Amino acid sequence: MGNTQGKELSPQMRERVLKLFAKFDVDGSKSIEKTETIKYWKSNFAKLNTEELFKSVDTDNSGTISEEEWLNFWTSVLRSGHTEQEISDELESIETGSSWCKFENLDKKS
């Protein structure tokens, strides 16, 4: 598989990841709050999706997800061996209202 430690998201993938961030961040505050994700998922297991999302991405446990945390999460997904195509597929799934996917074995120290 090669060395994935220093991998970074391509400019196109970074833009796609930030586009989804903006869909969650409806108030434009540059951070995602739990109320925003619950509204985003509506009744599609909204609270469960929100809890899983925050467990995975809110690394400082502040109760909000910053753009930096969001980008670091998706970079750690890439570095854990997932491809940008797999990330793209997951982003598309989330964009269409599907549940949050819990990625395993991620290095949280990105």
UniProtKB/TrEMBL annotation:
Pfam family, one: EF-hand_7
Protein name: EF-hand domain-containing protein
SMART domains attached to this UniProt entry: EFh
Alphabetical list of InterPro entries matching this protein: EF_Hand_1_Ca_BS, EF_hand_dom
EF-hand domain location: 45-80
GO MF term (any one): calcium ion binding
